[in-house]
Amino acid sequence: MKTTLKENFKNTALGKEADSILRSCVHCGFCNATCPTYQLLGDELDGPRGRIYLIKQALEDNEVTKKTQLHLDRCLYCLACETTCPSGVRYSHLLEIGKKWVEQRVDRSWHDKLKRYSLRAILPNIPSISSSQPRHSRTMLILDGCVQPLLKPNINTAATKVFDQLGISLHKIKGCCGAINQHMTATETAAEQMRRNIDNWLPLIEQMNAEAIMITASGCGTMLKEYGYYLRDDPDYAEKAQKITNMTRDISEIIAECDLSSYSNIGKQRNITFHAPCSLQHAQKITGVVEKVLESIGFKLNPVEDAHLCCGSAGTYSILQKTISKSLLDNKIKALENAKPELIATANIGCLKHLAGGSSVPVVHWIELLTEHE
Predict the structure, then answer these.
(1) Cβ-based neighbours of 27, under 8 Å, separated by 6 or more
(2) Which residues contact 162 (CB under 8 A, 6 or more apart)?
(3) What are the pLDDT digits (tens) for 42-57?
(4) CA–CA separation, 156 and 164 (whole Å)
(5) Which runs of E-coded beta strand occur in the chain?
(6) Counting CB atoms within 10 angstroms of each CB, which of 68, 228, 235, 286 has the fewest?
(7) Which domains does the chain have, with CATH numbers?
(8) CA–CA separation, 216 vs 347, rounded Å?
(9) Going by C-beta distance under 8 Å and a sequence separation of 6 or more, which residues neighbour residue 284?
(10) Residue 231, class by beta-carbon neighbours within 10 Å (0-12 exposed, 13-18 middle, 19+ buried)?
């Protein structure tokens, strides 16, 4: 794609990155085929290709309006487009650059400002407790996060129990990953959160000789795996941030490497459905891993139509874009419940709570299913 970005922006680090991403797009439109909002609304500007054009026009110093902002706000950050794109366009990075540019030029209503500020002020600051002492030779850190300990603390409790049985001690660490602020264009606040987490976690990694930072909420895992990218130009934190990124692993990646023979057939061929969060399958590119684990221990998993499509949770999206979110939820519930499962399992707290609000069957984090083993 040919670009003529504004010169004083094009020569900055962000400008060079945006220009490179834009030029990598061949506007083929494959991305629209897997974009949930384009599929739902049928508007070119509510698909990745259209949003890329909007961002290109904005960065070329054309007028940006509330309509521009609306189409960018409607993006779920699900990254199904990145999975589909044959050219490897880093749409998510371009979107963040574009949203920040537009946010600085288009004023929001006081009501919208208040809602967004409240979400950023409250959600990342829900307290959690760091606890537990290692009793095995192998130790890992497990992120409690901000929202999950309040909404469903038994997820990390279940993980700790399972790993104790597998001979691995988990030490809980606290701190918001920074995703909420990052995705709502409060990038400076997000960077401060990342630096604070790094300062708190690195000494523990050294002290406990921790092998990894384990994440049970795939949305948080996606963010931690981007620390190296977000702080790459920070001379004091670039190397430290990359260490956090390198050590971060989704719980499924670790469980899949463990000997689960003692969990054989705990599923007893129970009929369940697994919902793969976008942050797991599209952002982290972890596909089929949880499913294989659950099948290996005796659960019968149902196929899911359009499994690549977002459930509509997407962090704060279900609060800020309620109508679209509800439509996506209805479609997802229909697909997940089609085979009449006993329960639905997932891998992210946001998806879990969102799905539970529309499902007629229980929704759990998949690691909880392993605690049925005694």
Answers:
(1) 1, 49, 52, 53
(2) 255, 367, 370, 371
(3) 999 999 999 999 999 9
(4) 12
(5) 138-145, 168-174, 213-215, 248-250, 271-274, 300-301, 343-346, 363-365
(6) 235
(7) 7-103 (1.10.1060.10), 128-255 (3.40.50), 261-372 (3.40.50.1860)
(8) 7
(9) 218, 221, 222, 225, 250
(10) buried
Q: Is residue 276 within 8 Å of residue 250, measured between CB atoms?
A: no
Q: Could you say which residues of the chain have pLDDT below 50? A: 128-131
Query: Could you give the angle at which helices 91-103 and 13-24 cross, rounded to 10 degrees?
Result: 130
- Cα separation, 91 vs 256, in Å, equals 30
DSSP 332: H
Global confidence as pTM: 0.91
Please check whether residue 86 is in contact with residue 138, taking contact to mean a CB–CB distance below 8 angstroms: no
Long-range (24+ apart) CB contacts under 8 A made by 122-127 are: 123/147, 123/176, 123/180, 123/316, 124/176, 124/178, 124/180, 124/181, 124/193, 125/176, 126/150, 127/174
Rounded to 5 degrees, φ, ψ at 87 are -100, 0
Measured in residues, the chain has a length of: 374
Q: What's the CA gap between 325 and 312, in Å, rounded?
A: 4
Contact residues for 16 (Cβ-Cβ < 8 A; gap 6+): 10
Percent over 90 (pLDDT), the chain? 83
Are the CB atoms for 89 and 110 separated by under 8 Å? no
Identify which of 293, 290, 286, 260 has the alpha carbon closest to the alpha carbon of residue 274. Answer: 290
Looking only at the bridges linking them, the beta strands covering 271-274 and 300-301 are parallel
By C-alpha distance, which of 186, 179, 121 is closest to 145?
179
* CB within 8 Å of 119: residues ≥ 6 apart: 180, 184, 316, 319, 320
Q: pLDDT value at position 133?
A: 57
